[in-house]
Design goal:
By secondary structure, the protein is α+β, with helices and mostly antiparallel strands. The protein has a single domain, classed as Jelly Rolls (Sandwich), CATH 2.60.120. The protein has 7 helices and 12 strands. The strands form 3 sheets. The protein has a 6-stranded antiparallel beta sheet with strand order 1-2-3-12-5-10, with helices on both faces. A 4-stranded antiparallel beta sheet has the order 4-11-6-7, with no helix packed on it.
Length: about 280
């Protein structure tokens, strides 16, 4: 029954694409957007400076390791309950820092755009381009989306995906991404890092741009996260970005259901808040 439901969703999607009129190129003068790349960059960078101030304070006081242990205590004890020993972890402090930075980013977006950001979103897995990443939706409409995504585990030689109808930017939040565009001269790779990490300004680029009809391969270090902001036909991107992997790659029906549910809720919430905001503006 569950597979039948998703098959119906898939058929409806194809039918909608045939009838869809929103096929304009990104940045078309015919379209208007709620956000801009500069707004996304400013929000992420402001959050990072706040998060790094907090991390520096905890590190200077020498309590960050104890806090990290306490933060993951229940999770680790749950694993230990059916084992002979306490579990070993890759890097508990780095895991805590990553969670802390992501929390600051989410909070900054919600504070700056309370009428647009989906404030009840849940973390879920996303499988596209060979990577199984953590993702949370902040905003989605027919022509824009904002998501925070990344991986705790190292990911090498992954594929960006091909989108002829969408312009995507990735603003680094934590970790390192090495990216190689197929048409880069000399097959050069570029290193992307957040503007500041662990109190150190990186002095390197923090924003990548996957332009329409371009493809790239990339590597992610462990504990690498970024905010993706896209403009274009988002409904079309939902098919290769969520539907196809869920059905044809890993048959993750729970994950696919979460994608559809969270995306729908975020879309309806943003649309409702946007209409409410227009009403307030017209009254004033």
């Amino acid at each position: 029954m569950q597979k039948l439901i998703y098959l119906c969703v898939l058929l409806c999607f194809f039918a909608f694409q045939i009838l869809a009129k929103n096929n304009r190129e990104p940045d078309s003068p015919r379209g208007t957007y709620k956000f801009s790349l500069q707004a996304i960059q400013d929000t992420v960078r402001a959050a990072l400076f706040k998060a790094n101030t907090e991390i520096k304070l905890l590190s200077d006081q020498g309590i960050i390791e104890a806090i990290a242990q306490l933060y993951f205590q229940d999770y680790l004890h749950k694993i230990a309950s059916y084992n002979l020993h306490m579990p070993q972890t890759v890097d508990l402090i780095e895991s805590y820092k990553t969670d802390l930075v992501n929390a600051f980013v989410l909070k900054e977006f919600k504070n700056r755009y309370p009428r647009l950001i989906f404030d009840n979103s849940k973390w879920m897995f996303n499988s596209v381009g060979g990577i199984y990443a953590n993702m949370i939706i902040l905003y989605i409409s027919l022509d824009e989306y904002i998501v925070l995504w990344g991986t705790t585990l190292k990911a090498d030689n992954k594929f960006s995906g091909y989108y002829s109808y969408m312009n995507e930017f990735d603003v680094m939040v934590r970790g390192t991404m090495e990216s190689h565009d197929v048409d880069a001269p000399g097959h050069a790779s570029v290193i992307y890092r957040p503007i500041i990490q662990d109190g150190i300004e990186t002095h390197t680029v923090d924003t990548s741009n996957l332009i329409p009809k371009n493809v790239r391969s990339y590597n992610l270090d462990a504990h690498t996260y970024m905010v993706s902001y896209a403009q274009g036909n988002i409904l079309k991107a939902f098919f290769p970005g969520a539907i196809m992997p869920g059905i044809f790659v890993n048959q993750d029906w729970g994950g696919l259901s979460a994608h559809i549910t969270q995306s729908t809720k975020a879309f309806l919430k943003a649309k409702k808040k946007s209409k409410k905001n227009k009403k307030i503006i017209s009254v004033n």
